[in-house]
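Section 5: illustrative case.
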């Protein structure tokens, strides 16, 4: 798994597991903007890793639609993959920002 806890995305070091999850999710959002259709399986594993800390049940429930978009993208035409990844980006980053607000996690300009 690739759990990235937010260096450069969060202000300072993450002070809670929720902050680490926020950093991880925003990192995966960034990955989506970098041609994720070329590494869909890696993104499945990496995005799942974000739910290993904090409230795992809630994280899994919130990200299930995004994960399903990755599953649906496997073997799909490139245009469909790109559309699914755009939707995934919205789901993942919204959840990360909601979690950041709820736990008062401060984001750098890059994380916003």
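Designed sequence:
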């Amino acid at each position: 798994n690739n759990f990235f806890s937010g260096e450069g995305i969060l202000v300072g070091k993450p002070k809670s597991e929720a902050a680490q999850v926020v950093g991880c999710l925003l990192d995966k959002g960034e990955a989506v903007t970098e041609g994720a259709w070329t590494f869909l399986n890696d993104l499945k594993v990496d995005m799942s890793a974000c739910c290993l800390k904090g409230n795992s049940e809630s994280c899994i429930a919130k990200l299930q639609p995004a994960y399903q978009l990755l599953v649906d993208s496997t073997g799909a035409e490139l245009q469909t993959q790109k559309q699914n990844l755009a939707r995934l980006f919205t789901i993942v980053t919204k959840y990360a920002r909601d979690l950041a607000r709820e736990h008062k996690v401060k984001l750098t300009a890059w994380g916003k």
